[in-house]
Amino acid sequence: MARATMETADLRIALFSGNYNYVRDGANQALNRLAEYHLRQGAQVRVYAPVVASPAFEPTGELVGIRSIPIPSRSEYRVPLLLAGKAKRDLKAFAPNIVHVSSPDPVGHQAVTWARRRGLPVLASVHTRFETYLRYYNMAWGEPVIEAMLRRFYRRCDALVAPSESMAQLLREQRMNYDISIWSRGVDREIFHPGRRDREWRRAHGIADEDVAIGFLGRLVMEKGLDVFSDTLDDLRRRGVRYKALVIGEGPAREWFEARLPGGAFVGFQQGADLGRAVSCMDVLFNPSVTETFGNVTLEAMACGLPVVAAAATGSQSLVDNCKSGRLLPPGAIHQFAEALKAYIEDPALRAAHGKAGEARASEFSWDKINQAVADTYLRLIRQKPGAKA
């Protein structure tokens, strides 16, 4: 039974993830930071996720492998299939007092069932808008079906955490659950700040001091709005507006993107201080994606003092103050995006003012405070389920 005085150090967290460390993305880095924070507070954390021979980075905490298969069209990602054998025995022996699921995959469903049979509370974190992915494969007609499947999954959980209030409100409107709180995202101000800007680095990548660099940051996959990004820059070129494209990231669509952005500076995957330097070397971030639930890249750019032009979608709406720290425009609005970028390119004072406002907003996001909010949610759910048995 949960003790009335239960604290963060008393938590035994079973965390289920479809991708904890084999491909680096914003979602799994947030999960690793969450695990690190709880371990630092004295809690116990066990992670159940697919493993590969050469992961993108070392996992935080103890990682137990789950049976999985590659996704046919996106082989770098895997689908967890079965919670059985060694993993299931390990889960029983670990005896968690809270189960956290971060992906609505088959093992996520099985973990929820396992917890419900034992009267254990389940928290689900929402990291991406899976239903929107179909738009990029000419299957938008299937969105209501995916939404219904997600609703069934999330309603079996005791509560959800979303990374922004705009995403939480969308989940409420979609009737995914009625207990939804915020697990925001933080930014490392030692890595992301305007002082990282490096003119020599820019010059080395073909960006002259007088060039205005329009930046893209993220995995190079079509779901990130690469078509909208390139179509918008085509619009600028037709208007005779001078710019330089600076692309940070890797992914299966890189060759396509390079062909669409001739003369662009593609600097590949960056991390740590190198990433902070690369982002600071942009002059404006253009984020046309509608799939993010928070927008880590938006926050990182703001911390570097950059104005942001973004789609008015869940990822950026809670971060960008329209016409004060950037522009929020309708998704896919090529001409409006081009107008906003043109204004920043031609008005250095506007760039500087909106960048400064964005940096002030980014200073509000502390990782420890944000992750403690998840711990508080764990503790609340445990208190609400007296008599849970492992």
From TrEMBL:
Gene Ontology MF: a single term: glycosyltransferase activity
Alphabetical list of SUPFAM superfamilies matching this protein: UDP-Glycosyltransferase/glycogen phosphorylase
The Glycosyltransferase subfamily 4-like N-terminal domain, residue ranges: 25-190
Stretches assigned to coiled coil: none
Signal peptide annotation: none
Protein name in UniProt: Sulfolipid synthase
Species assigned in the record: Novosphingobium endophyticum
